[in-house]
Specification:
The complex is a heterodimer of chains A (329) and B (119).
Chain A (H helix, E strand, L loop, with lengths): L15 H4 L3 H9 L2 H12 L23 H22 L8 H28 L8 H11 L4 H6 L22 E9 L1 H20 L8 H19 E7 L2 E6 L4 E7 L3 E8 L9 E5 L2 E5 L4 E7 L4 E5 L4 H12 L1
Parallel strand pairs in A: 7-9
Antiparallel strand pairs in A: 1-2, 2-3, 3-4, 5-8, 6-7, 8-9
Helix pairs in contact in A: 2-4, 2-5, 3-4, 3-5, 4-5, 5-6, 8-9
Chain B lengths: L1 E4 L7 H14 L12 H8 L3 H13 L3 E4 L3 E4 L5 H20 L3 H14 L1
Antiparallel strand pairs in B: 2-3
Classes of the chains: A alpha+beta (329), B mainly alpha (119).
């Protein structure tokens, strides 16, 4: 009946099989080493022919140490290497749910870094400064090389990777009996962040606005928006009733998320690791949305279109059991 | 916490809600300071009249379990411990027994005062 009464416990599955990297994932990670190989091989082969300095003004660099061939190859090589290491990290089970996106970004970084190196080294080998008319094309070429990220993204497997708990039994509700579950989640750290952002805006308003500092007004607006964003999530009211699963900002009294009951196929309690859902706060990822604010467990519902919505709550077994009952009515 | 109401029950819906909140406070499910859902929100969730929820909240406020502030809604009083709830339950039982015996509230109060003096 009440929280204290035993809702059905739903033991968690380990989820290991769902998070384990597949052969396709390993291929995706391996493809991230291609930029490293290209960079290393070309740098080695061209080392004697390349001048001491490369034409890199087209990248927005006006000179300095960045022009040095050794430094520039080192910087671009480091970017490519980081991207390749990110691919290895993506194979870890904890990164399963963000794996395709991680290898996409890593591929973009690796591709761009390699293209920047090849363009600069190419003009260095030619021994001519880059003509002004070619600059936009070269910049566009480097940006286009970021599309290499699509390769590991498409290679990585598309299987669903949502940790599911066992389906819960329902809360007993008599015919005509109505049930509703409410909880309020207070995220103190978001309140602190909001206070710090507001304080920073106040400091800028006092110190910089009287001096007509460039961008001071924009910074104040941005900081106040950030503070409002933190405040929205600093106190949430989560409810389950005949309308479905709702998350409302308790301070501003507006709904943040609502999954209608008639769209819910199943509800489960689940382990919601921030790392697997893209971090804290309101997370939107392909096929799934989540509000991850506190704790590690929460309610996970599957919609009729196959997508998932999750929200972290303390002791999710009871609301999950109520949802199961209401859905089955 | 879970709120359940049965319109077919002989107990009024306001009383059903009040009992559930009282039990939740007594067993610690609702800690002091916890805010209860706004009356309108709870009424919509249970498909009942908002005034029914407000009646339940008012009853709990009168029992010293909830405090209600303008704009902040209802929350469990900081001093609403299990002991307070138990006293309210005993007082309810005493009044119910007095009603059964035809003893009025003033007489019950006099009786309590006398017992208190002798104790």
């Amino acid at each position: 009946m009440l929280d204290s009464e035993s809702p059905t416990k739903s033991p968690m599955k380990t989820g290991e099989s769902a998070t384990r990297a597949t052969t396709r994932d390993r291929l995706a990670a391996a493809s991230l080493w291609l930029p490293v190989v290209i960079l290393s091989v070309t740098a080695t082969l061209w080392s004697r022919r390349l001048p001491a300095e490369l034409p890199v003004e087209w990248l927005g660099n006006e000179g300095g140490a960045f022009r040095s061939t050794a430094v520039f190859s080192g910087i671009t090589g480091t970017f490519a290497l980081f991207a390749a290491v990110a691919g290895i990290i993506a194979l870890a089970g904890v990164a399963a749910t963000i794996r395709p996106w991680l290898v996409l970004v890593a591929g973009m970084v690796g591709g761009s870094a390699t293209a920047a190196w090849l363009v600069a080294a190419g003009f260095g080998l030619a021994g001519e400064p880059m003509p002004a008319s070619a600059v936009p094309w070269m910049v566009a070429l480097v940006l286009a090389a970021a599309s290499y990220g699509v390769v590991p993204y498409l290679l990585s497997s598309r299987q669903r990777r949502v940790r599911l708990g066992d389906a819960a039994a329902g809360v007993p509700l008599g015919v005509g009996e109505a049930g509703a579950w409410f909880t309020t989640i207070r995220v103190r750290v978001f309140g602190v962040f909001a206070a710090v952002s507001t304080l920073a805006a106040a400091v800028i308003a006092v110190l910089l606005v009287p001096r007509d500092a460039v961008g001071a007004s924009a910074a104040i607006v941005a900081l106040l928006l950030v503070a409002a964003g933190f405040l929205v999530f600093s106190r949430l009211r989560v409810s389950v009733d005949h309308r479905g699963l709702r998350v409302v900002s308790s301070l501003f009294r507006f709904p943040i998320a609502h999954v209608e009951l008639n769209r819910i196929v199943s509800a489960r309690s689940a382990e919601l690791r921030a790392a697997e859902w893209g971090g804290w706060g309101y997370r939107v990822m392909p096929g799934r949305t989540a509000i991850v604010v506190s704790g590690r467990r929460g309610i996970l519902v599957e919609r009729d279109n196959g997508t998932h919505f999750a929200v972290t709550v303390p002791n999710p077994d009871l609301p999950v059991a109520l949802l199961t009952t209401l859905v089955s009515r | 916490m879970l709120y359940k109401v049965d319109p077919a029950s002989a107990v009024t819906i306001a009383d059903q809600l009040a009992v559930q909140v009282r039990v939740a406070v007594a067993d610690g499910s609702l800690a002091p300071g916890t805010r209860l859902p706004p009356a309108r929100e709870l009424a919509n969730a249970l498909s009942i009249n908002m005034h029914t929820v407000l009646r339940a909240y008012a009853q709990l406020r009168d029992d010293g379990i909830l405090e209600m502030r303008q704009g902040r809604g209802a929350s469990v009083r900081a001093d609403a411990a299990a002991g307070t709830v138990r006293l309210v339950e005993l007082a309810d039982a005493l009044l119910a027994e007095a009603r059964k015996l035809g003893v009025g509230i003033p007489d019950v109060l006099i009786l309590i005062q006398k017992r208190g003096t002798h104790a």
